[in-house]
UniProtKB/TrEMBL annotation:
SUPFAM superfamilies found in the cross-reference section: Metallo-hydrolase/oxidoreductase
Signal peptide: 1-30
Gene3D superfamilies linked: Alkyl sulfatase, dimerisation domain, Metallo-beta-lactamase domain
Protein's organism: Paraglaciecola polaris LMG 21857
GO BP annotation list: dodecyl sulfate metabolic process
InterPro entries to which the protein is assigned, alphabetical: Alkyl/aryl-sulf_dimr_sf (IPR038536), Alkyl_sulf_dimr (IPR029228), Bact_Alkyl/Aryl-Sulfatase (IPR052195), Bds1/SdsA1_MBL-fold (IPR044097), Metallo-B-lactamas (IPR001279), RibonucZ/Hydroxyglut_hydro (IPR036866)
GO molecular function: linear primary-alkylsulfatase activity; protein dimerization activity
Family annotation (Pfam families): Alkyl_sulf_dimr (PF14863), Lactamase_B (PF00753)
Domain Metallo-beta-lactamase: 67-283
Official protein name in the record: Alkyl sulfatase or beta-lactamase
Domain of life: Bacteria
SMART domains: Lactamase_B (SM00849)
Keywords: Signal
Length: 460
């Protein structure tokens, strides 16, 4: 450690020199979009603003805010399934629905407590007699964090959502168009802007309203308060966020309590049993045709169940999370399906979450019971490399071929000196390279956000 004390001024001087030369010595990112960027951009067609006629009684508005808003037409009124994130955008949907039918809203049903499905509710509260339904324990995920006084998930959520990025930096969120919450909604809270009037705590609750008979079915998965709604007359199933056209977000990188993957698969299995002809997901466009809907839901269920079972198998073999993400690979038939591509969630994140959900943070390797501090480990790695300057050179030389390694080496440099502007800028470049080749929308947004923050901190 004394070596670093003696050489600290020299290292800082050299690091600053490297910082000044980075813009000249490092390659500029190619302007041509990567295949991953093109594929993610093509997904935006799923979010084109449109009022979709699902069948004679069901309409779904897509592309207003970030989640679909659905209407079921009853005898003397309508029922709204989820209400969107923005009161302003939801008012536009209310006006669209009025062009289809002048009937008043009799009930609002929330599939779960995420704000992107609830904060537009005021647009549909026609009068004080409107029933507002949710499962008992509504808003569990947000309440769990709030009760602990936890707030960091909002900052991380802004990075995941790309809220700090400019429109040209942000393609979409994988299952929804790019959205900035300043427009009036809260993606992470459960403030519905209206009072919940009715809840249920059974597996199935049959709701009779507006001449309709709907089954509200408990379906824990993305949230503990999740439900799906079955309308048998038109064989329509409203899945909430337990289904959308992407690998499911079994673990959100903004952070959350463990999402029970096993129960998520079971909830999708329960959807399959209804044999729906129409499927309205929590995001993306509806799917029609009984054969296709059953096939999609069956593959969705089986892929989740496979990943869970294979992860548990590896855990029982004593594998660590890093070993598990190499061991657990989805069968090729699932990898080829567009609606199971990692646009939003990612299998690797789910594997790590399952391990932590069942065994906690300790990976079973006693070397990790009391590890070195980040700074001490960084100092020893730098010593192996021949000093901080040599570590920086290795990080810089790895940038094009292995930006992940560059990022990790920069983390060592920043652990030793968190004011190292050269390391900040180099890590930012690695983040941008990693982002452009990543299909996952939330991971991409997080990379770009961190890059932007590092560049700002370094003075760019």
């Amino acid at each position: 450690m004394s070596t670093y004390t003696k050489n600290s001024l020299s290292q800082i001087s050299k690091a600053l020199a490297i910082s000044l030369s980075l813009s000249l010595s490092l390659p500029v990112l190619a302007e041509t979009p990567s295949p991953a960027s093109k594929q993610l951009a093509a997904r935006s067609a799923e979010f084109n603003q449109e009022l979709i006629k699902v069948n004679e009684q069901v309409y779904t508005a897509v592309g207003y805010g970030v989640s679909p808003i659905s209407m079921i037409i009853g005898d003397d009124g309508i029922v709204i399934i989820d209400t969107g994130i923005s009161p302003e955008e939801s008012k536009k949907v209310r006006q669209l629905f009025a062009t289809i039918t002048p009937k008043p809203v009799k009930a609002i049903i929330f599939t779960h407590g995420h704000g992107d499905h609830t904060t537009g509710a005021i647009a549909f509260k026609d009068n004080d007699d409107v029933q507002v339904w949710a499962r008992e324990g509504f808003g569990h995920e947000g309440n769990f964090a709030n009760d602990a006084g936890l707030t960091i998930q909002r900052k991380r959520g802004a990075a995941q959502g790309g809220f700090l990025l400019s429109p040209d930096e942000r393609i979409n969120n994988g299952i929804a168009k790019a959205y900035w919450p300043s427009k009036g909604g809260d993606a992470f809270g459960a403030d519905t802007k209206v009072k919940i009037t009715n809840t249920f705590n059974t597996q199935i609750h049959v709701l009779k309203v507006a001449g309709l008979e709907l089954s509200l079915v408990a379906a824990p998965g993305e949230t503990d308060d999740e439900m799906f709604i079955w309308y048998p007359q038109t064989q329509t199933l409203f899945a909430g966020d337990n289904f959308y056209k992407s690998w499911p977000n079994l673990y959100p990188i903004r952070g959350a309590a463990y999402r029970d993957v096993r129960l998520w698969a079971k909830s999708v299995h329960n959807m399959v049993k209804y044999k729906p002809t129409y499927l309205v997901g929590g995001h993306t466009r509806p799917i029609s045709g009984q054969a296709e809907v059953i096939d999609v839901l069956t593959n969705y269920r089986d892929a989740i169940q496979f990943l869970f079972d294979k992860t548990i198998e590896g855990m029982n073999k004593g594998m660590t999370p890093n070993q598990l993400v190499e061991y657990v690979k989805l069968p090729e038939k699932f990898q080829k399906l567009d609606y199971l591509q990692p646009y939003y969630g990612h299998p690797e994140w789910a594997i790590r979450s399952i391990f932590n959900g069942y065994l906690g943070w300790y990976d079973g390797n006693p070397s990790n019971l009391f590890p070195l501090s980040d700074k001490e480990e960084a100092q020893k790695i730098a010593a192996l490399a021949g000093g901080a300057d040599e570590l920086m050179k290795q990080a810089q030389s790895a940038l094009n071929d292995n930006p992940q390694w560059t990022a990790q080496l920069c983390d060592y440099l920043l652990a030793m000196d968190d004011s190292n502007k050269a390391a900040m800028l180099l890590k930012a470049k690695s983040m941008r390279l990693l982002a452009k080749d990543l299909l996952n929308g939330t991971g991409r947004n997080y990379y770009f956000t961190v890059a932007k923050l590092l560049e700002k901190k370094a003075g760019l």
